[in-house]
Amino acid sequence: MTSESTAADRTRIDFARAVPKAFKALISFDAAAREGLDPALAELVQIRSSQLNGCAYCLHLHTSDARRAGESEERLHMVAVWREAGNFFTEPERAALELAEAVTLVSGGGVPDAVYRRAAAHFTDAELARLLALVLAVNTWNRIALSTAKVPVAGRR
Q1: So what's the pLDDT on residue 31?
Q2: What is the DSSP string of 19-36?
Q3: 3-class state of residue 54 by DSSP
Q4: Backbone φ, ψ for residue 13 (5° rounding)
Q5: Which parts of the chain have pLDDT scores under 70?
Q6: How far, CA to CA in Å, does 86 sit from each of 53, 75, 77, 99, 137?
Q7: What angle do CA 107, 29, 70 make, to 5 degrees?
């Protein structure tokens, strides 16, 4: 067995165990971002970013958390198509989802001024900053989960 096949065959690292200080710092960053935001809104934003990033692990986690925060199955099913199902979401929620998409897909041209202005019209500066921090955090979590091949387990958060 070559060293190349050995590296490819081994199990992915446990990020939390391998770099506990970085993991704890990210948990603290995530918690600080959520502070003062509506828990259901926070989960909707994290669900949308996780959908865009193709992160099944985080999608499972955040849909479970959204249910605990009082989200309905009906609304959870509509997050992926929130533009077409606009009547399911409030104006602030639509602005937050649009901002989450723009930040998650930032390499496609940045965050358009119109998207930022819509979000700023519905949130205070502190709320907007928290919302941005939350999107940054979930994108980091998505990348960790995808890079380390985390998979969701049915029936478990």
Answers
A1: 97
A2: -HHHHHHHHHHHHHHHTT
A3: coil
A4: -70, 155
A5: 1-10, 155-157
A6: 22, 10, 13, 15, 26
A7: 90
Q: What's the pLDDT score for residue 98?
A: 98
The answer to whether residue 4 is domain-embedded is no
DSSP state of 10: S
Residues 144 and 54: beta-carbon distance below 8 Å:
no
CATH number at residue 86: 1.20.1290.10
Q: Kindly report the pTM of this predicted structure.
A: 0.90
* Exposure b/e, 111-143, CB count within 10 A at least 16 = b: beeebbebbeebbeeebbebbbbbbbbbbebbe
- Full residue range of the structural domain in which residue 102 is found: 17-147
Q: Token digits for 156?
A: 């478990």
The structure tokens 């590296």 sit at 7
